[in-house]
């Protein structure tokens, strides 16, 4: 988390029931903004106040928002409204409790469920929160950011590995298709050649038909042998064709499985990010 203030500043309690964003301990501006708002929300919010937000990195936008929260101007008030609207349910549920033990209980439940964003905003703006609970919350959020960062890095590595496997599978599938087409062309060429050979033999047989039974019998046997050889070769080619088809089907299934795994990981990562925002 970015450092905005090195020291611990006390809370400025006003005559209203909840603290404003610019009234809280400055240390919490960074974790609250980073935990409770998505980058899309933050960019949309910042765009109306800073001209170069589209060219800024996520970190630069975040730092700009943290500084704006500290200043308490129009930008901070607009951000306050966004927080209050987004986490109205948590504010209503937790705002009813003024006992520090109940606030601590709400925070422990948030950590258990992983839904920390709403309770974080509701508790740090609660006028009954004490310094001990704030210190614990600050440490918990700090460590959660490390855990989430580690998880995201692991997901990125796994996604990269799956992407490479998908590319290899695509290459293998493409190569198998080429080999299959080559085998199919070869088989068709052999079949055409054998059919021409059989046709030639038949024409010869018709042209050179002999009245002698022995000669006719010999030529019939030769033609039968050729037909038998042709049939066997055709069967072998057909079997090779089936084998190539099965290989392509298996590689397609493998590619589909890898793509499904990548999509599942991306969905899980998006779900975790949404979960942390709730």
Topology summary:
Elements: H1 29-36, H2 39-47, H3 58-71, H4 74-86, H5 88-95, H6 100-113, H7 117-124, H8 131-207, H9 213-277
Helix pairs in contact: 1-3, 2-3, 3-4, 5-7, 6-7, 8-9
What is the gist of this entry?
This protein has 278 residues and is mainly α. The chain has helices at residues 29-36, 39-47, 58-71, 74-86, 88-95, 100-113, 117-124, 131-207, 213-277. The longest helix has 77 residues, at 131-207.
Can you tell me about this structure?
By secondary structure, this protein is an all-alpha fold. It has nine helices and no strands.
Index terms:
278 residues, mainly alpha, single chain, disordered N terminus, 9 helices
Poorly predicted spans: 1-15, 211-216
Shape descriptor reads rod-shaped
SSE pattern: HHHHHHHHH
Helicity level:
over 70%
Mean pLDDT: 76
Number of strands: 0
Work out the strand percent: under 5%
Query: What is the rounded Rg?
Result: 37 Å
Largest sheet: none
User: Given the helix and strand composition, which structural class is it?
Assistant: mainly alpha
Q: How many H/I helical runs?
A: 9
Distance between the termini: 19 Å
């Amino acid at each position: 988390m970015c450092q905005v203030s090195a020291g611990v500043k006390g809370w400025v309690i006003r005559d209203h029931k909840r603290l404003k964003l610019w009234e809280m301990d400055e240390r919490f501006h960074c974790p609250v903004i980073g935990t409770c708002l998505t980058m899309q929300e933050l960019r949309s919010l910042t765009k109306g106040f800073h001209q170069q937000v589209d060219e800024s990195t996520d970190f630069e936008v975040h730092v700009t928002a943290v500084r704006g929260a500290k200043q308490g101007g129009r930008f901070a008030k607009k951000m306050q409204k966004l927080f209050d609207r987004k986490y109205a349910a948590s504010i209503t549920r937790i705002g009813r409790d003024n006992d520090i033990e109940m606030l601590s209980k709400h925070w422990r439940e948030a950590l258990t469920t992983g839904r920390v964003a709403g309770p974080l905003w509701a508790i740090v703006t609660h006028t009954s929160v004490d310094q001990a609970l704030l210190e614990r919350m600050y440490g918990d959020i700090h460590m959660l950011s490390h855990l989430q960062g580690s998880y995201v890095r692991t997901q990125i590595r796994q996604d990269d590995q799956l992407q490479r496997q998908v590319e290899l599978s695509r290459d293998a599938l493409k190569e198998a298709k080429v080999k299959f087409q080559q085998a199919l062309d070869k088989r068709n060429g052999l079949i055409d050649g054998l059919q021409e050979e059989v046709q030639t033999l038949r024409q010869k047989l018709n042209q050179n038909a002999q009245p002698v039974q022995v000669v006719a019998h010999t030529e019939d046997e030769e033609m039968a042998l050729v037909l038998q050889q042709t049939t066997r070769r055709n069967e072998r080619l057909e079997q090779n064709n089936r084998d190539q088809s099965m290989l392509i089907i298996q590689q397609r299934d493998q590619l589909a499985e890898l793509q499904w795994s990548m999509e599942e990981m991306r969905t899980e990562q998006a779900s975790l990010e949404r979960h942390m925002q709730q």
